[in-house]
Design goal:
- InterPro entries: ArsR-like_HTH, WH-like_DNA-bd_sf, WH_DNA-bd_sf.
- It holds the Pfam family HTH_20.
- The chain is of the alpha+beta class.
- It has a single domain, classed as Arc Repressor Mutant, subunit A (Orthogonal Bundle).
- The chain is built from 5 helices and 4 strands.
- It has a two-stranded antiparallel ribbon with strand order 1-2. A two-stranded antiparallel ribbon has the order 3-4.
- Helix 2 crosses helix 3 and helix 3 crosses helix 4.
- It starts with a helix and ends with a helix.
């Protein structure tokens, strides 16, 4: 995990998607990186449960994924046996909240 958080693109994605969910294209713009670079970082961040995705419905009926950060705090501690990294993911959005938000989006 520390190598992932050491990656500039991964950190930029987490920072950019902290306040509002963003599409991969928007994250690519924020990182000033190619879509393939951003998608690789998205996959790695999701594998570590640091980034969520959900579908955003457009008024024209199309939909696309948007991504939001699940990290509130990262703590690195130096111990006798090496470094320990702790990630506080906060409350996050559970399935019931996600369903309610999706349902209300149809109104």
């Amino acid at each position: 995990m520390t190598s992932l958080l050491d990656d500039e693109y991964a950190r930029t994605i987490l920072e950019a998607a902290r306040d509002e969910p963003l599409s991969a294209d928007e994250l690519s713009d924020a990182c000033e990186a190619s879509s393939s670079t951003v998608y690789r970082r998205i996959e790695r961040l999701q594998a570590q449960n640091l980034l969520d995705d959900h579908q955003r419905l457009d008024p024209d009926g199309h939909h696309h994924k948007v991504y939001s950060t699940r990290v509130e705090r990262v703590t690195v501690e130096l111990r006798d046996d090496g470094f320990a990294c702790t990630v506080d993911r906060g409350g996050g959005e559970d399935a019931a909240d996600r369903f309610t938000r999706l349902y209300e989006g149809f109104k």
